[in-house]
Structures are given as C-alpha cells and as structure tokens.
Amino acid sequence: MSSENIDTRTKILQATVRSLEQSGGRGARMGDIAKESGISRQAVYLHFESRADLLTQAFLYLGDQLDVDGRLAPSRAAATGQERLERYIEFWGNFLPEIYGVAKALMMARDTDEAAAAAWKDRMEAMRHGCRAAIGALHADGALAEEWTRSKATDAFFAMLQVPNWEYLTQECGWSKKEYIRRMSVLAKRSFVAG
Amino acid sequence: MSSENIDTRTKILQATVRSLEQSGGRGARMGDIAKESGISRQAVYLHFESRADLLTQAFLYLGDQLDVDGRLAPSRAAATGQERLERYIEFWGNFLPEIYGVAKALMMARDTDEAAAAAWKDRMEAMRHGCRAAIGALHADGALAEEWTRSKATDAFFAMLQVPNWEYLTQECGWSKKEYIRRMSVLAKRSFVAG
DNA sequence: CGTGTCAATTGACACAGTGTCAAGTGATAA
DNA sequence: TTATCACTTGACACTGTGTCAATTGACACG
Lengths: 195, 195
What we know:
Two copies of one chain form a homodimer.
Chain A: H1 6-23, H2 30-37, H3 41-47, H4 51-65, H5 68-76, H6 81-110, H7 114-140, H8 150-160, H9 163-172, H10 177-192
The structure holds a DNA duplex.
C-alpha cells in the first residue's frame, strides 16, 4: 500500500498539495486531484485507500518537504523561555500559511472521517508538544505568570495558535503574516510571562 | 416562505434544534430532522428552501428563544471596562454551550454553502460588536494596554472567543464551563488591561 | 518470439445525501 | 359538493466517494 512505484505516488501527493494550495482552503475532489496528477481517478485509488488517506499522506509529505525540525531549531535553541515562546510563534506564523490548504482539507475531512480525525489529532499533538516545551521553558525561568499551571497555560497557548484563529485574523481581519506574528507574540507575552 | 402555518414551521425549527443538540456537533440530515419533526422529509422543503436555510433559521430561532439581550445586560451595565470584559466572557461561556449544536452545524455548512456562510458571518458580526464595545469601554477607562489599538484588540479578543477555541478547550482539554470562563477572563485581562 | 506481470485505463455501478417533481390524500371552509 | 390547502408518497436527478471487472500497453524473462 505504501512502497510500490514511488514515482506515481509522489506525483499524486504533489498534485494533491498543489490542488489544495490553489484552492485556498476550498478543497479539491478526487477527480480534480487525478486530473492535476495527469492520471485517471481510479489510479489514485491504486495508491491511496481513500480521500482521507490521501489527505493524511499529503499532509505528512508536505511536513517532510518543509523541514519542520530545521524551522523549529531557533525556538529550541532560545536562551530564555520568553524567547522560546516568541521563536515558536514566529515558526508557526511562517509555517502555517504554507500548509494551510492541505491542513484545512484534512481538518474538514475530520468531520466525516475517523482516520482523518486521528491523523489530524496526532499532528496537532506534536504541535502541542512544542507549545508545552515553550511554556515549560518559561516556567523553568520562573517567568510563567502565577495564574497559570504549565498544563493550563499549554492548553491556552495552543488554543491561541489554532488554525481557525489564524484563518480569522488573516482572512477576515486582514492581518499580514508579519502582523500576526508580532501581535500573537504580544498576546502570548502579556498572557503568560510574569511581571 | 415565511409566515404560512407557523405551527409546523416552528415544530420543524424546534426539532432541528433538538436534533442538533443531541448530535453534540455531529450534525443531522434532513431526513433525521423530518423524522424528529414527525413529518415527511419533503414537507420540510415546503417551509425551508434548503438545508442551509433551515440551519440559518434554526440558529436565529434559538437566539430569540435564549434572550440574548437579557443575558448581555450585565455586561452592558458594567461600571468599568474590565468588568464589562469579564461579564462579556461570562455571557459567552454560558451562552455558547447552549447554541453549540446548531452553531456547529451552521459553521460546517459554510464550507459548501454561500448562504450559510453569509448568515454565520452576519451573526458573528453581531458578536464582534459586543467584543468591540467591551474593548471600547476598556479604552474609555484608559485601561487598554498600550500595545493595542481598539480595532486590533477587538480582532484578538474576538478571535479568542471563537467556537473552535471553546471546542478545543472544553472537549479536548476538558475545561469545565466555569473553568473556561475563569481562565478566559484571566487571559483577556492579562492581554488587554493595562498595568 | 511468446508469455506473464504489473501499472494504469475505461466504463459501469453502488451508495449516501440533497433537492425536485407530480400525483394523490384528507380535512376544512364556501 | 367542490375548491383549497398542507402534507404525503414515491420516483428521480445530481454530486461525489468508492468498488469492480475487463482491457491496454510496456517491460522483462526464458
């Protein structure tokens, strides 16, 4: 299900990413993706079990392409908790626009598909780890505001960064990528950093 | 389309609300709603143009039932900006669980339906007015933190209160209604109140 | 050269859910 | 008794996902 003829499989994954990016969050049908891949719709099903499977694989594929670890390095290397928080938001603000099309499609598929829900949850769990680490660093500095426990601050911080928030702020409110990063940093700093 | 035989129409609206509440955000089909109403699926279409129309009307109907204005009174009557902010979050934290089923269905319908998107946007615009008023009151007190303009603070405050955030915090993180209200108040206070 | 294998194609089909259409029913009112 | 009105019934079109079976075309091996 996974290794035969890497080429076509990859072609489909790339076409999926392209289609979903072009759609700007509006989604793409199996037929659209097949056309974009230059193969028949049925051939897609030779490589992926279902639409949910395809979206999941495309999401993972894109993650690999975009070198998440490398992009997270500045946050991990930060000297202080506060800097770590800021670098994390910076990472996220730059990363999210690049995965948005695929992420949105996967998010939407959650509503009708178990597997998509599980895949999304798994990825978001990884994201949440980053949030927890940043909050943890803040706490280690003794700089986590006293109203918060590490766990609850992680909940709130992660909630702040959710896709629908970003969607609202950038698409409805017209915040630019830079503004999103700047203001979310202010928000997080005021919310979680003591003093 | 709107006034003939109020009874059946109302019966359908109530059944819609009931179905969507019971589903806990998972949605309901036209057939389910018809069954719940005790009429035929086709009869629903005698009263509502489409699923999107039905969801929209059900959302408005529910809003009427729940006396939004009355519930907002404490916020409007608040003596200080900060209290207004807090009362607003309290209103929202108590209100949202009651409209969640219907709200979620309408939100989901946005993705495929123009009319649903417009209806949702319209309702959220009203919500946003409340946020703006609270932020405005804070500003009038000279208590809006200097990092924010009224407009940008409204964007951020409203984003904080979005349905998916609440969904995440209460359903994934297990925050109770009370905890949601308390912590969101802390969050908003730290984020927007000067000093 | 023939044969088998394997990826992909083609076209038909099942299924769910929304929405439409036309004919029919049954009660109420003129 | 006849017309009207709300509703029912059942059939059907449409979209999109997913399945199935038969076929094509390329490449590899004896």
